[in-house]
Amino acid sequence: QIDLENSKNSGLIQVQTLLKDIDGISFVNFNEKDIVRHDLVKYIIKAYSQNEFKTD
Predict the structure, then answer these.
(1) Which carries the bigger pLDDT value, residue 23 or residue 39?
(2) Is 10 exposed, middle or buried (0-12, 13-18, 19+ CB in 10 A)?
(3) What residues contact 32, with CB distance under 8 A and at least 6 apart?
(4) What element of type H or E holds 19?
(5) Tens digit of each residue's pLDDT (9 = 90 or more) over 2-15
(6) Does position 19 have pLDDT exceeding 90, yes or no?
(7) Cβ(13)–Cβ(2) under 8 Å?
(8) Taking all residues of the chain, what is their mean pLDDT, rounded to a whole number?
(9) pTM of the full predicted structure?
(10) Around 37, how many Cα atoms within 13 Å sit in the side-chain half-sphere?
């Protein structure tokens, strides 16, 4: 799960790059459309992704 403000520094992205060519290892990427929890969770995640008042 990547929920860091600057996802470029995420260890998960580094791992995907390092391990992408190893047989038996795969990665699945999800977005807000894949969330199957309560609809409010979708709205909250969408609001955060569109937030123009992000802090540094």
Answers:
(1) 23
(2) middle
(3) 42, 45, 46, 49
(4) helix 11-19
(5) 666 665 577 888 89
(6) yes
(7) yes
(8) 80
(9) 0.44
(10) 9
